[in-house]
Amino acid sequence: MATRKLYYEDCHLKTFTAKVISCAETSKGYAVTLDATAFYPEGGGQACDLGTLGGVRVLDVRESGEEVVHLCENKLEVGAVVEGFIDWNRRFDQMQQHTGEHIVSGIVHRLYGFDNVGFHVGADVITVDFDGIIPQEALPLIEAEANQVVWQNLTLRCWYPSEEELPTVGYRTKRALPWPVRIVEIPGVDKCACCGVQVAMTGEVGLIKLFN
Question: What does DSSP say about strands 4-5 and 36-37: parallel, antiparallel, or unpaired?
Fold first, then answer.
């Protein structure tokens, strides 16, 4: 059964209720699936959400096909309706960093044509790898432009183009992707294939600081 992905429907959803579809014991805990979840699974360079389900600690979250699997510390009863709580400080920090990366990568791509070929969202900083060398003297200018995008408080658009529309979208991607593809657009700044969870508006990102 496909899991309804509430984290795409409302990026600010902190609590939710859902029905337990399955619960299987594993060597590391209990693998739980729900009919819907606000827990983002690890993917696209972004770490998974943590928190609790029915008062039970969630240790890890992964995708398995169309299902989102929550690794829980204890068992949850199949058929029970449970309340989920997201560790919001962790989630919001991940969202801020991820959208900040999109802003910087979009600017770098426009100025130099370089592609982002990998990134990792860490506890304190986000590391981005480009397929070209950015001049050291350009970093303050890129940083200033990125912060202007933050101050403009632009509204992000996240959507799935139709199969016919997708070839006309013109988006950044690390590799050719089969339809369907989720697109994250920051108007006038970046348009990128992305499965991650972003902030709703660029003003939520806060200060962007570049280090080399």
Answer: parallel
- DSSP code, position 23: E
Residue type, 165: E
Distances (CA, A) of 9 to 43, 79, 85, 99: 17, 24, 16, 17
CA atoms of 111 and 90, how far apart (whole Å): 32
As a dihedral over the C-alpha atoms of residue 77, residue 72, residue 37, residue 20, rounded to 10 degrees, the angle is -10
**CA atoms of 68 and 64, how far apart (whole Å):** 6
Give the three-class secondary structure for 7.
Answer: helix
pLDDT tens per residue across span 54-70: 999 999 999 999 999 99
Helix (H) or strand (E) holding 162: none
CA–CA dist 99, 89 (Å, integer) = 16
Phi/psi of residue 175, each to 5°? -160, 165
Q: Is the pTM above the cut of 0.85?
A: yes
Reduced to 3 states (helix: H, G, I; strand: E, B; else coil), residue 91 is helix
* Phi–psi pair at 72, nearest 5 degrees: -110, 155
Per-residue pLDDT tens over the stretch 146-163: 999 999 999 999 999 999
Using CA atoms, how far apart are residues 72 and 17, in angstroms rounded to an integer?
A: 16
